[in-house]
Amino acid sequence: PSATRYSDEVSLLEYYREVTNRLTAVPGVSSVGAIHLLPMTYQNWGLLYEAEDNIVPAETQLPRANFRIVTPGYFQTMGIPIVRGRDFNADDVLLNPEPYGADEAAEAIVINQAMARLLWPDEDPIGKEICIGCRFSENPPGTPVVGVVQDIHQHALDVEPMPEMYVPFAQVTVQRMYLMIRTEGAEIAAVAALKDAIWSVDSDIPIPSARPMSEVISRSYSDPRFYTVLLSAFAFIALILGAVGVYGVISYVVSQRTHEIGVRMALGADRPTVRRAVLTSGLWPVLLGVGLGLLGAFAATRVLSSLLFEVTATDPLTYAGVAGFLTVVAVAACYLPARRASRVDPMTALRLE
């Protein structure tokens, strides 16, 4: 909204409250909330704070936590569970609103699990106070914690949740908010109706974009996904080249032993014994190479760890699959030529040289 037309907290509160009511009335909309920084982006506010039972010495700088301004219903809309306490409500008002006296103002703050574990690992954080941007010695009392929400990936899927504080929009009003709308059915079909509902409050306010949250999440890891696909393509090519090379070299080496196989069979060796001997001698170099390759791959995991999410760089299934595939190729490269050679008449094999 325009800063000239909506220049005070009361007008901003009224505008967003009315927009929320109009959006909630749109068919197919189940809940509406708003936040001042779009999730799954690197937009961030970090504020200093001091928490009850965690007083910081005067000569030490205060710790910092992520800071989010949200409206009631935001957690429900985004599917963020409240694990303890409550959500914000209409009673969590401005610090000094026009209709209220200073003594009647109600402050509230919601924190995430990471911050609760950091500050009060063995206590109930509900009712504890946090002084946002200040020290208790300078500006008592603090803001009481009314709820604890589940940790979420606020910036990106590969960024671990950090301590976060949420305050209601009625306490800290800002000009720009991202409206989060949970719809039932196709999102695109609802966009026109949602825009009309917003413009019914004020048609002069532009709507920069309207997109599903899945698209925002997809864009957040577009770069890692590109690098991962590129590396996967090169890895697949390397695996195929490795398999072709292993098969070609080993089958050639085994075929060169046709004379030896003929001599063995002429001296009384049976076919299964000859095949086992060829397999054993042919697999040892391959198994040694696979072992060295696994060690090299393990050493290179630090390069790949930054591109992976919920998959460890030492994923045992991947290691076992690649090692097993190359071993199977080596077995085939040994067995098939040995099988052909063992079927040749010994005298024919001896006459090859």
Structure characterization notes:
The chain is an alpha+beta fold. Helix content is 45%, strand content 14%. It has helices at 9-24, 74-78, 113-119, 187-199, 213-220, 222-255, 258-266, 271-299, 301-305, 316-343, 346-350; strands at residues 29-35, 46-51, 64-70, 82-85, 109-112, 129-132, 143-149, 164-168, 178-183. The strands form 2 sheets. A 6-stranded mixed barrel has the order 2-3-8-5-7-6. Strands 1-9 form a two-stranded antiparallel ribbon. Helix 6 runs parallel beside helix 10 and helix 8 runs antiparallel to helix 10. The chain is elongated and about 105 Å long. It starts with 8 loop residues before the first helix and ends with a helix.
- What is the helix content? 40-55%
Largest beta sheet, briefly? 6 strands, mixed, barrel
Which value, in Å, is the CA radius of gyration?
Answer: 33 Å
Quaternary state of the chains? single chain
Please state the average pLDDT score: 82
Number of strands: 9
What is the percentage of strand-forming residues?
A: 5-15%
Keywords:
353 residues, alpha+beta, 6-stranded mixed β-barrel, two-stranded antiparallel sheet, 9 strands, 45% helix, elongated
Element layout with pairings:
Elements: H1 9-24, E1 29-35, E2 46-51, E3 64-70, H2 74-78, E4 82-85, E5 109-112, H3 113-119, E6 129-132, E7 143-149, E8 164-168, E9 178-183, H4 187-199, H5 213-220, H6 222-255, H7 258-266, H8 271-299, H9 301-305, H10 316-343, H11 346-350
Parallel strand pairs: 3-8, 5-7
Antiparallel strand pairs: 1-9, 2-3, 2-6, 4-7, 5-8, 6-7
